[in-house]
Amino acid sequence: MLKYLFLLGIMGEWVFFLFLSLFRLEYAGAQNSNLYTYFWILIFSATTIALIVYLLNYIKKGTFPKFFILKVSPIIFVILLYLISFLLNGFDNNANGYYASIFFAMCIPAYLIGLICTSLSKENQLINIVVNFVLLGSIILILSLVRLITGGGANDSLDTIGGVGRLGIGYLATHFFIVTFYLFLFSNKLSDVFKSTLKPNNRWLWFIYLLLAIQLATVIFSGSRGPLLNLVIISIVMVITKVFQKNIIESIKKIAVLIILAFSFFLLYNIFGSNYFSTSTERTLTLFQLNESNWAGGSGRESIYPLALKMFEEKPIFGYGPLGFLSESNLQMHPHNLILEGLVDYGIVGAVFIVIFLFYILKRYSNAIKSNVNILLIFFLFISTLLELQVSGTFMAHARFWFFIGLSIGFTNRKDNKIERV
Description:
There is one protein chain. By secondary structure, the chain is mainly α. The protein is 70% helix and 2% strand. It has 18 helices and 2 strands. A two-stranded antiparallel sheet has the order 1-2. A hairpin with a 2-residue loop joins strand 1 (412-415) and strand 2. Helix 3 packs across helix 6 (94-119), helix 5 (73-89) runs antiparallel to helix 6 and helix 16 packs antiparallel against helix 17. The protein starts with a helix and ends with a strand. Mean pLDDT is 79; it is low at 414-422.
């Protein structure tokens, strides 16, 4: 049962919305339904039980983890930041309360799930369940797109799947694309995870081509620019990683096939694509409409980012405090950029600390990949999440980000059948 908990940790609300979409249901929203709340209560309860079992297992063996408090110190630190924020802005601040509730209900369970996963050396089990979920979830995406096209209603915009908004759809499809693209490029490395069930034969490859096309289409039809930019950057990083491997000829062949497929996809879209999801597609492609005076694809970030830099200049050393931009900018939002958020809220001192911490996390992933090359897939998903935080959201309330942090903190290195710290 642990593997399903791992899936909830890394995919979170996407499991919820895809499950609804599978049965042609759609979440009505928090004002009309408590179903989403019950879903996270279930995850929180399951995580609590798993954590108790995890700790009791160590206590029973007489090997209670000496550094357990140190392992959970990142979330303890963020809890302190929220307390400071409430002290600075008042306990009746609705925005602070909203983000604090997200952190406690979603981010803490996600962090603990990641920590338990790697502390128990279940990385391959995590990869197995993620790949299987992506294959199933992609089929649900296909069904959802077909329903929208053949539904007889307005089909010029892909606004929701199961209740998740267009931005969520975009990042969901991007993560699916990353996993599928990894299977396309590195399937030979997953033999010890799937044994004989994952063989890169011709039928399998054509299935992968289909999924990649559907996932790319979903990103474009979602009308979200951030996911498309994310997908392009991660794809380039993955291709470069593949090229630097020994079998250069195989890499070139796969990349050539992918280019042909991408060209075919856009050719077909130009022929009849304007009939479906035209509004969403036009919105997505404004990402590339740049000129000197305006960035059409910025969704207001062209004004948010200069304001954040101006606020940083006013308090450059220690910043405005936790959630400072949210409280002091009069915009009631975060900067939608991890670096700017660090600079405005915590000044140079805090931003440097955040950068050092992230480099430490990246180093742990690097060391873990040397022991288990399959973790490279998880690493690509983590990089994608970091890129997402450069244009959307806040690290103070991002469950997947904290899952990947918890995962890295729990990493172990197995050499000569011994378990050692990375």
